[in-house]
Design a protein that fits this description.
four-stranded antiparallel sheet; globular; alpha+beta
Amino acid sequence: MILEVLLRLPVKSILRFRAVCRSWAALFSSKDFCTLHMALSKVVPPPPKLLVVSFTARLDSIGMYSFSPSDTRDGLLFTVDSARRNSLEVVTPSPCYGLTLLYDAAALAYYVCNAATRSVTRLPRYPDPGHVSTAGLGFDARTREYKVVRLINGFCFEKDINRCDVYTPGADRWRPAAGGVPFSLFQFACSAVTNAQMDKVPPVFANGFLHWLINPCLITRRPRAAIVSFSLTDETLG
């Protein structure tokens, strides 16, 4: 009975109740509770909110705001220090399990933020800042954790012209995806990265896969599908 009540609490109340005792703090932080709370929130969805990146009073800081038609109060969620104005962008317009991916073009850094808990995590700096790439955020149903995936176009003189890197929570670096980029998908991966950069079209997460649109004009043979997908569970492209 107590669990049923706790599952129906808003996120703000859950954050406050974590201080009641250690057992409640452990419960609210567990993957099982988070999964059940997320599932229940989909049955009774909260009012829609709009995430906005805007300036703050400081010149070296950018703020992330949340606005709702039913709430006119100041919706400042958090600030990103040392970020230049007009350099921070929202990569995933639609949240993935409550998480949003941000990118700071000036610092070449990705951030994963949770608008409900007002937490933000800066991801480790990737080792190839000069390469053209595109990134997406998805959820691995098997491990029940998010993953950030980067498709990268390298240089022609490099051993791996195309690469796919993955970041998982708690890691101190990006790592190669388990399946890599198959040679048969070389042109499609290149097209997906180029199309995402030129047209500002980020990948979309659905049904356990990240989906990139490809531009048929950028490849030599006409594909049967205009999408390259990445499995968050198997870490393979298809």
